Amino acid sequence: MNSLSLGGKSLNVAELLNETHKFNVPTICVTGGKGGTGKSTIAVNLAIFFTLLGKKVLLADCDVDAPNIAILLNVNLGSREEVHQFVPQFNLDKCIKCGRCAEVCRSHAILHVKNSFPIFFKSLCTGCEACKLVCKSQAIEEGYKVIGWTSTGSAYNIDIVSGELKLKEAESAAVVIAVKERIQKMLNTNKYDLVIIDTAPGAHCDVARSMIGSDIALAVTEPTPFGAHDLDLILSLAERINVKMKVVLNRSNLLENHDVIEEICKKHSTDIIAKIPLDDHILRSYVKGKPVLLDNLDSPGAKALIELGGKVKGVLEI
Amino acid sequence: MKEVVVVSGKGGVGKTSLTASLAYLFSSNNARLMVVDTDVDAPNLALLLKGEKVEEISVKASEKAFIDYAKCDGCGMCVKYCKENAILWDSKENKPYIFDVFCEGCGVCSVVCPRKAIKIELVENGSIVISRSTYGFLVVTGQLKIGEAGSGKIVMEVKLKANEIAKKNKADILLVDGPPGTGCPAIAAVSGAHYAILITEPTPAALSDLKRIYEIVKHFQAPSGLVINKADLEENFKKEIYKFAEREGIQILGEIPLDNAIPYSLAQGIPVIEYAPNSPASKSIKKIAEKILQTLLGE
Question: I need a labelling partner for B206 at 20 to 30 A (CA). Which of A235, B93, B119, B239 fits?
């Protein structure tokens, strides 16, 4: 078993992976573990901050389950591109009923009974293509289904790219990959100074995929036992995939004492880069679909967000 | 036994807070209750219900590829065919590396490997923790290992386990705290539920995500009721939510007003209903709980 394990080498692999997935412009990822801590709000306001400094920002929504960036900026997206997943097309004229396809299908989407044609269960198929690759008689052809979309738009001089998983589909990873490919495509054709990526809540592989290759990831949390618990998870994930992470403490005045959060930061050798107070202006601007940095610059929330922007700028040296 | 799931689409709109307070009220109403946390990415419910761990079961519901380097000759076929970008090419060593976080165990690499150097093996990707809350009832929590895939499968395992225990204990209600999102884990959480409690807040983002999760609820033909949290956040936008509920024929369970008692109770890690039983929020939650019990258990 030991010869098969990669346990000891996983950090090197992560370093290599980060190199492979790096964009050629500075990239910030906004994540946080817990849902509803203010990830998208902070991503959007950071985008505004850098735009106000004259930087051209590409803002990407990788929360493909529940994409909200466009809603927060009150913009309609267009240039929709489909995200496809491979689906085998069985050509029964060529099928020799060998059953190899069913044998290699690990998601049990193909059933084979001796001497009969394979039976296909589309909803179980994850699109890996193993069946097509092993079919000796070329009876499996390339088909596809649409599992989501990526689309683009623009607001306040910020370009936006967003992914959306089709409802009842499960392969969200493929949509996240598609968003990152579309970012690369846009970087190839336009000049950007900065990419900002907003992720889904949680600490699962889609979040890792969104985060990988970023120069800095921000974990947005709040001073509650929940926030602390989930912060510990997301910081562990960042360590595992070797992405540098700083903490943004949102709704910081909810509780005076931030010891629990500080302790978790210390455990993971990082720190709180900025504290954003609970501020009605942020909430109202959120509902209005106009970022608080454009709505009310003098509010305590906006001031704290500007401070955050300055700190991030310092870390990235841009 | 009735299985009830709390979902929202958007994260952070109050699923866990509502679930904890409902659990408290149901159990003090003498309902035999069991509670399940299916937010396997960030399970917080047991924290709020002050659960003491009784048992932990490891779950192997994920598969990963492993390379036997004694057999690998560095042909690179596996890298070429991996759709998850989970296999990297180290050009210095001329060897592929599997990055386990991205590997979903589809097995295509082992199929294309001419030297049969890749094996797919079942790995542990999470755990089920059974704990007893300070209020007496059991809480079953699913926990996904950091960076793992297969959260939907963990949700299924957790629900199976919870159903098994609930039946043994003759529970009346199995209250399921759902995950955010509308993907695989959310689908798994909603499947099999007899009733769905939808919770939202009057913001455009929350309404958009509510509409998405409602499609999933409809797909499983579960009757549902809607709770509007932070209801007075935006009176104008609240109308949009009512319009949606009316159009879809969703029962309105009630509104919970913006009330600082909720964030402060969360900061203390106590369900608001216990922390501030006479606060406006708690009063509305009591009415909501009564309505749900009536719907579920009749008179």
Answer: A235
Chain A residues inside the 8 Å CB shell of B102: 17, 173, 205, 208-209
Q: Say which range, A5-9, A198-202, B255-259, has the weakest mean pLDDT.
A: A5-9
Angle at B176 between CA B130 and CA B209, to 5 degrees: 135
Rounded Cα gap, residues A206 and A175, in angstroms = 9
- In Å, how far from its chain's centre is CA B60? 18
3-state class of B37 per DSSP?
strand
Cα separation, B101 vs A156, whole angstroms: 36
Q: Which of B99, B120, B123 to mutate to test the interface with A (most CBs of A within 10 A)?
A: B99
Contact B215, B30 (CB under 8 A): no
- Shortest CA distance from B83: residue in chain A: A128
pLDDT above 70 coverage of chain A, percent: 96
Phi first, then psi: what are they for B245, rounded to 5°? -60, -40
Domains in chain B, CATH or no CATH each? 2-60+125-297 (3.40.50.300), 63-123 (3.30.70.20)
Backbone Cα Rg of chain B: 22
- Rounded-to-integer distance, Cα A172 and Cα A164, Å: 9
CATH topology of domain A85-145: Alpha-Beta Plaits (3.30.70)
Q: How far apart are CA A105 and CA A119, in angstroms?
A: 12
The mean pLDDT value for B80-105 works out to: 89
Q: Among residues B63, B52, B44, B40, which one has the least CA distance to residue B127?
A: B40
Instruction: Judge: B66–A4 Cβ closer than 8 Å, yes or no.
Output: yes
A173 to B104: CB separation less than 8 angstroms, yes or no: yes
Q: In the β-sheet with B173-177, what is the strand arrangement from edge to edge?
A: B52-59, B126-132, B138-144, B33-37, B173-177, B2-7, B195-200, B224-228, B251-255
Under 8 Å between Cβ of B123 and B63: yes
Query: Tell me: the pLDDT tens digits for B168-185?
Result: 999 999 999 999 999 889
